[in-house]
Amino acid sequence: EIVLTQSPGTLSLSPGERATLSCRASQSVSSNYLAWYQQKPGQAPRLLIYGASSRATGIPDRFSGSGSGTDFSLTISSLEPEDFAVYYCQQYGYSPFTFGQGTKLEIK
Amino acid sequence: EVQLVESGGGLVKPGGSLRLSCAASGFTFSSYSMNWVRQAPGKGLEWVSSISSSSSYIYYADSVKGRFTISRDNAKNSLYLQMNSLRAEDTAVYYCARASGTPLGDFDYWGQGTLVTVSS
């Protein structure tokens, strides 16, 4: 099983600042099958990034993904008020299709 | 517009059974793998099970293997999760999610979830 470890657990920033979230895998992720999701309270998760670096349909370009192998990151270039949420990474290359434990992005 | 609507959640006693359904619309259901993901109250996301477009590939998390069964009916555009021998730790919101490809893919569309509570 591929274990995904996200850091930090909580990130406190202000609107307009840059956010960098990390996701580290216990073994190499096949074909960069790594996705990022955003979840707001009471809502279903929303796909942001797939294939480690491709933005999903309708996702603003302030969101970007990078990385390969075992180290991945999600960057939000300039935080908007609606970006404060919980973010999860997921690998979908090998079953079980594991999620990281999440990073909570909160307003400072 | 892609829509996924879960149903079938509710309160069940430990050891009991429940069948969840997910009604899909707005896309060619038979061309996509489908998934169940759950989220215990206040916790993170946990992948539960996946089924490929023609049901040729089926995967389960170890935590539910032998107790849960995923299935689909492409003629009815529906996904199912039969849950038996339920435990308190199965209490969660259960989401169905479409995979962007088959048999593998990111989860590009999600339903709003259905709550399953296992309690005596």
Tell me what the structure shows.
- The complex is a heterodimer of chains A (108) and B (120).
- Chain A has strands at 4-7, 10-13, 19-25, 34-39, 46-50, 54-55, 63-68, 71-76, 86-91, 103-107.
- In chain A, strand 4 and strand 5 (46-50) form a beta hairpin.
- Chain A is mainly beta.
- The model of chain A has no long low-confidence stretch (mean pLDDT 96).
- The N and C termini of chain B lie far apart (40 Å).
- Chain B is globular.
- Chain B is mostly beta strands.
- In chain B, the strands form two sheets. In chain B, strands 2, 4, 5, 6, 9, 10 and 11 form a seven-stranded mixed beta sheet that branches. In chain B, strands 1-3-8-7 form a four-stranded antiparallel beta sheet, with no helix packed on it.
- Chain B is built from no helices and eleven strands.
- In chain B, strand 7 and strand 8 (78-83) form a beta hairpin.
- Chain A binds chain B through residues 33, 35, 37, 39, 43-47, 50-51, 56, 88, 90, 92-93, 95-102, and chain B through 35, 37, 44-47, 50, 59, 61-62, 95, 97, 99-100, 104-113.
